[in-house]
Amino acid sequence: MSLLHKLCGIVDDCRAEYEYGKERPMRWNFVQSQQVVQKAGQDRRCTEMIGGNLLAQGDNAAFMEWLLREGGMGGKLKMIYIDPPFFSNADYAAEVKVNTDKIKLAAVKQKAYRDTWENGMEEYLSMLAYRLLLIRELLAEDGGLWIHLDWHAVHYVKIIADEIFGQENFINEVIWTYKSGGVSKRRFARKHDTLLYYGKSKKYYFQAQKEKSYNRGYKPYRFKGVKEYRDDLGWYTMVNKKDVWQIDMVGRTSSERTGYATQKPEALLRQILESCTEEGDLCADFFCGSGTLPAVAQQMGRRWIACDAGRLAAAQTQKRLWNLGADFTVWEAAPVQTDSPVCRSKSQRQKEGKLLAEAFVKPAGVSQSELLTVRLLRYIPPEGVYEMLDEKNAKAVKRLLKKDSLALVNFWCVEERPADDGILRPKRMMMRDKNGLALECEVLGNSFGNVQGEIAVQVWDLLGGHQTAKVKIEKENKR
Questions:
Q1: Beta strand pairing status for 440-444 and 370-380?
Q2: Phi, psi at 90, each rounded to 5°
Q3: 330 and 352 co-located in one domain
Q4: What is the pLDDT of residues 348-381, one digit of tens each?
Q5: Most CB contacts within 10 A, which of 41, 107, 310, 363?
Q6: Residue 364's domain is classified under what CATH number?
Q7: What are the residues facing 30 on neighbouring strands?
């Protein structure tokens, strides 16, 4: 049977699975791992945070089910953008560049996400159809969905999306064209992606944006009632934006570049958000990668929800949002627990990695104030980070850590107090950049309120691992 004949069956099977999923016990729960608060007076409990700014690591279908059943988020999202795998039959890697003077090491390649499908297009379309059913339930009546694809599967996905959202609710096919990418002597160069835009209903919100339309020959028309403008190139009028967008990809030297595979430019997401949302609206990306959608939403005053299955994607997104001063809650997928808890063995605890740091105070030379110094000493990543490395790269990383145990640290922070309440209140954040990473920081002790007890230090590594340590503060003369 041809794939065309199977399309109806794919949708029907996903509908049945979707209806069954509403009644079955939850297979996955999402547990709050931390609540990041960077602005004074913003301490809010997790129940108040549901509805925006959430970053989740885990399967996006399980997360959407959790949002609907546990979070009460049905009909609450104004705009959803998804950039799923394209059915390219290739797996993608992110390059991790490690800077250290102690050992020469080429960039480490880590698996970012899988886009190979054992059962071909049918398996891929089933994956996507089930998630489109969940997305439709999450969207508000005036909300809209953007599906970002390319030539591999967009024609099949369009048919499935028409079935789920209704052909009458299809709004636009937008072409994003760019210069980057390869060429071939056997075909025209493939230089565009396709974005499918659907409304939940005919009530969808849309605000047309304007763009320049240059006159023929760049000369003035002087038509009655037509307002014309002039720039260095020539004369133009302002018209509603067309459905072909020319936006550059994220270049190798771009300040946006994270190193994550298939990263999308902020300008693309900004154009979508300007057209389909207003300030304060809640938007989401359930294949968030390195976090372009939440980053742009944060800059534009929108609330956001982001999810990705990858450990590296979640860490990259968190770092990006840290740099923007965002407040958000981080959730991690966990299997639903049985009645009898399982005790962790010593070997299991060792697999979680280790973080060592020291903290001490000394007189700051300022009236009755002390200077708190915090220094990283050693970092062992959790074993889970090696799951996304091949054997060659895993051995290279382990060899590196024997020479320089802190070489993998990507960013770290010092907290006001140990985060027993799950709220992260950073006093200082140290980020790795092209000049390296500061492994020591100093903070005036009185900014912590009490420098006689403990602080918390948190570290995120370049492979997506994460560790927290409580550090006792000592007097300098006792060291």
A1: antiparallel
A2: -140, 150
A3: no
A4: 444 678 999 999 888 776 666 778 899 999 999 9
A5: 310
A6: 2.60.40
A7: 333
